[in-house]
Design a protein that fits this description.
Layout lengths: L2 H24 L18 H5 L8 H8 L2 E5 L5 E5 L2 H9 L3 E3 L1 H10 L10 H15 L1 H6 L1 H21 L6 E2 H18 L3 H4 L1 H15 L3 H10 L4 H8 L4 H30 L11 H6 L16 H5 L2 H25 L1 H17 L12 H13 L6 E5 L3 E10 L5 E7 L4 E4 L1 H4 L3 H4 L43 H18 E5 L7 E5 L1 E5 L8 E6 L1
Helix pairs in contact: 8-9, 8-22, 9-17, 11-14, 17-19, 17-22, 18-19, 18-22
The protein binds protoporphyrin IX containing FE and 2-acetamido-2-deoxy-beta-D-glucopyranose (2 copies).
């Protein structure tokens, strides 16, 4: 190329770059009030993601700046933290926002390309519609006996642990709840026991979960840098023989293999008429394959191909495991801290257990304290503390009430640019005092707020109890009814059989966000020691 041409080209690129830079600088988001950042490299990301206790900074920002404010991401990026229900409704219910770039990138790494969560547009719509067969209200009702089997095995496990310990030695309930959650996934998704899944699956899977949960300064920087790479470049990098990537690639292949095996076995059994046991119960894969396990007939055509169903194995396990583990563990921790409520709940459980001698008839939705307890746990300890979204196009964010920006202007709505990151601040939204109670403290655990009418005043958001625990809109959690029934059945069983009290050494557990909210011991590991006694 001619030197002059190169010079012109360079000059043009410079102009373009500074134009883009100026454009970015001029985004109105930069003028929205928010806390000052002490570091250009990390912005507020260390305060937001790695505090001693989740929310240490976020909740004081919320108190000072309200439901929409600006924080700094890495390298000077402006992000919006949003807990305003009107703005959130816009983010969730229009198709103008997608997953934030770092989530988008980890999904291409972790999930099968045919899986529902990384899918977009029409493909996503079609997969969701087809998967609904296994997750609708009527489908989930059919899984009740499967969950009850899981719950009984948790009781047996906990009884054994209790028998080995004297009554004052604490039991770490976290691994037990984690096993309960893995069991529910394998039993209710595909009719496998955890042993049938195989040691390799379980170890592969737990390594991926551990990687996903790793939170550190390096992790924050790596994710900030990688989120600026184009997707093709990121795809190429993920093919490199780097140990973390290796584990994830293996697990992805392995999950699909387990899914294929389960599907082949189910189809064989149906064809050969083996499964004519009238006690047989349909699981999620049966419903997706359109198999009725109590009838021996050739399965009619299903909406998804076998390969498409097998491709969902990984995402279903990953989306359902740590999340429900977190929910169950925090439920028991809250019970231990609220003895009087625990007694009242146990009385309700025993009363319902007495009325219904047949477990199949138990109607968990009719138990007021149990459901208030679950709602309050999912409000105060939402497993997903926040979710990042990015605008797909230039758009505006409508607001409940106007905000004043740094140049004195008052905005009724915030104009935002394509690519703008908007953080759905679920944990903050769940702590807004005027939404969740009048003069009471929304930070407290108080299940009675769900029974005395103080719980929620505002615009309906989310599929359940106006909570954002399962988000909402097109990408609302596919398994929210599944997770709720699992919690109802497991907690009913545990509260009926055991009494939970804080462990005597009383060390303070910290809640930290590590992919899901988790209790952390003073030594930095996950754990939830409680004193468990039979009752
Ligand atoms: C208490 C337990 C659970 C919580 C708190 C939870 C929460 C969530 C949230 C917040 C999302 C949205 C993620 C995003 O779009 O950024 C989500 C999506 C999803 N969840 Fe759950 N989840 C739970 C249990 C489950 C279970 C048990 C399953 C499956 C059996 C499941 C399957 C899914 C799937 C497939 C998606 C992706 C949906 C899509 O992108 O269309 N979840 N979940
Ligand atoms: C709580 O919500 C109300 C109504 O949406 C809002 O006016 C108020 O500013 C919020 N408070 C905080 C601290 O975000
Ligand atoms: C994952 O499973 C495979 C079996 O295909 C096994 O060879 C491998 O060691 C497992 N990886 C981990 C990290 O457990």
């Amino acid at each position: 190329m001619d030197d002059k041409l190169v010079a012109v080209f360079l000059l043009l690129s410079c102009c373009l770059c500074s134009y883009c830079f100026l454009l970015r600088r001029k985004s109105i988001v930069a003028c929205i009030p928010g806390p000052p950042a002490s570091s250009w490299v990390f912005g507020h990301m260390k305060d937001f993601l790695l505090p001693d206790q989740y929310g240490d900074f976020e909740y004081s920002w919320q108190r000072e700046y309200g439901q929409v404010y600006r924080i700094k991401g890495c390298f000077g990026e402006d992000r919006l933290m949003v807990s305003d229900p009107v703005a959130l409704q816009h983010v969730l219910n229009t198709n103008l926002f997608t997953h934030g770039p770092s989530l988008e990138q980890s999904m291409t790494l972790v999930f099968d390309p045919q899986a529902v969560m990384p899918a977009h547009g029409e493909t996503h719509k079609r997969l969701r519609a087809a998967l609904q067969v296994g997750f609708s209200a009527s489908a989930v009702r059919r899984y009740q006996p499967l969950f009850q089997n899981v719950a009984r095995s948790v009781t047996e496990r906990l009884q054994k642990v209790c028998a080995l310990l004297d009554s004052s030695t604490p039991t770490d309930i976290l691994p037990i709840m984690s096993e309960a959650s893995l069991n529910s996934m394998s039993q209710v998704l595909m009719g496998y026991s955890t042993e049938e899944l195989g040691k390799d699956f379980v170890s592969n899977n737990s390594k991926v979960m551990a990687l996903a949960a790793a939170q550190s300064e390096q992790q924050i920087l790596a994710s900030a840098v990688s989120s600026h790479l184009p997707l093709w470049c990121w795809r190429a990098i993920t093919q490199l023989p780097i140990p973390g990537f290796d584990i994830i690639r293996n697990a992805k292949v392995f999950a699909k293999r387990v899914g294929r095996k389960a599907i082949a076995e189910k189809l064989n059994a149906a064809r050969e008429g083996v499964a004519t046991d009238p006690q047989a119960r349909a699981d999620v894969f049966d419903l997706l394959l359109n198999i009725d396990p109590t009838l021996s007939k050739k399965p009619p055509k299903a909406a998804l191909t076998q390969e498409e169903i097998a491709s969902q194995t990984g995402i279903l396990f990953i989306a359902g495991e740590d999340t429900t583990t977190s929910a169950l563990v925090f439920a028991l921790l809250e019970l231990a801290d609220h003895q009087q409520f625990q007694e009242e709940l146990r009385a309700e459980v025993h009363q319902f257990a007495k009325i219904e001698s047949d477990d199949a008839e138990l109607s968990y939705d009719n138990m007021p304290l149990l459901n208030a307890f679950i709602k309050e746990t999912l409000r105060r300890n939402a497993p997903g503390s926040f979710n990042d979204r990015a605008a797909i196009v230039d758009t505006v964010l409508p607001l409940t009430k106007p905000i004043r920006i740094s140049n004195g202007e008052v905005l009724q709505q915030i104009p935002i640019r394509k690519g703008q990151i908007v953080t759905i601040a679920t944990a903050s939204y769940h702590r807004n005092e005027s939404l969740w109670g009048d003069d009471i403290d929304a930070h407290e655990f108080r299940p009675s707020r769900w029974l005395d009418g103080t719980a929620y005043h505002g615009r309906a958001l989310g599929p359940y109890a106006n909570l954002l625990t399962f988000l909402g809109g097109q990408r609302v959690c596919l398994g929210w009814r599944f997770a709720l029934l699992e919690m109802q059945v497991v907690l009913f069983e545990l509260v009926g059989n055991f009494r939970f009290t804080p462990s005597k050494d009383g060390h303070r557990l910290r809640s930290q966000f590590a992919n899901s909210l988790m209790p952390i011991l003073p030594d930095g590991n996950r754990g939830a020691p409680l004193t468990v006694t039979r009752c």
